[in-house]
Amino acid sequence: MANVLVTGGAGYVGSVCCRQLLERGHNVVVIDDLSTGHAHAVPEQATLHQLDYGDRARVANLLKRTSIDAVFHFAAKALIPESVTNPGVFFDVNVAAGIAFLETLQKHGVRRFVFSSSAAVYGNPEHVPIDEEHPKNPVNSYGETKLMFERVLRWYAAAYDWTVVAFRYFNASGATQHAGEDHRPETHVIPLLLQTAAGERGEFEVYGDDYDTPDGTCIRDYVHVSDIAAAHLLALDVTPNPGMRSYNIGCGRGHSVREVIGVAEQITGTNIPVTISPRRAGDPAVLCANPAKLQRELGWKPLRSDLREIVSTAWHWHKRWAARHAA
Ligand SMILES: NC(=O)c1ccc[n+]([C@@H]2O[C@H](COP(=O)([O-])OP(=O)(O)OC[C@H]3O[C@@H](n4cnc5c(N)ncnc54)[C@H](O)[C@@H]3O)[C@@H](O)[C@H]2O)c1
Fold first, then answer.
1. Mean of all residue pLDDT scores within the chain
2. pTM score, two decimals?
3. Number of neighbouring beta carbons within 10 Å of residue 149
4. Residue minimizing CA distance to atom 9 of ligand 1
5. Ligand 1 centroid to residue 8 C-alpha, Å
6. How confident is the model at residue 182 (pLDDT cuts 50, 70, 90)?
7. CB count, 10 Å around CB of 136?
8. CB of 172 within 8 A of CB of 225?
9. DSSP state of 123
10. 91, 169, 181: residue to mutate for ligand 1 pocket, most atoms within 8 A of CB
């Protein structure tokens, strides 16, 4: 049993991971400033500290009182369109505050760290599927901040004997019984489609249908949020040898936006109104992971990442969420 500090535990991926940790008997302490997360998403058995992870004094105070074996660092600014128009705040939160956090952890002897990185570190793919050795040329400041922080972590692993795992997620999606996607504003394909199916939005916007893909729309690798959380738990079992390891989390197969629309229409039993808009800058035609390293080294298997299961779990969660908000 470990004491795990989870930053961003009130967010989408972090809250699902908290629950899996608790189910395995670990103790969970959450740091979240609730800037994009929701207090109700934090499981009751976890302790929530509402604070900024870059606040050295308050984090130090917490670490003085609580012994921590490992940190799962989910908290970040993560909306890609915002990172294009407002890069400064991304460097401030994802890198500068991140380094303040690492310094505080270092002073308190924490040496095990799991980082939520992103496929955005790769930029426009030179080949697909993308393996971990693929060149890293981010095309937005969000991806740049994730890459910078990975590089910072590599130096902490080398200098201070930390055991670091960086997970580069592809498209986190789907829901569990307890948690689903509730980003505000929402920019992710599946929740936007389901909001449209539920009549909460007038239409779903497809950004470009003239890509070099079989149906002209972008192809992405969707991976269920439970499978992402499961990878984090496997990272806790890694022998604590000092060093840094990076892994893709994706399924190795992609689905086009049109395919996702088709599945969402079947599952919701609706016709989803769609408009075609121009391509967005920095949207590659195909993003698809090669997850072989994660499967080989950590024994990870995507158990819930079939597209129908992703969309149906997200739809069930959306209906429950809508019912709660209507009440
Ligand atoms: N959702 C995806 O498809 C996806 C893909 C690749 C990588 N990621 C990464 O996974 C992580 C989690 O993503 P998510 O979709 O769950 O995002 P989210 O916005 O739902 O969760 C992020 C959480 O971090 C908290 N937070 C932000 N800044 C903070 C700060 N300074 N101090 C304390 N808490 C802070 C927010 O309140 C929120 O609860 C992020 O690091 C993101 O970059 C997500």
1. 95
2. 0.97
3. 22
4. 116
5. 6
6. confident
7. 17
8. yes
9. B
10. 169
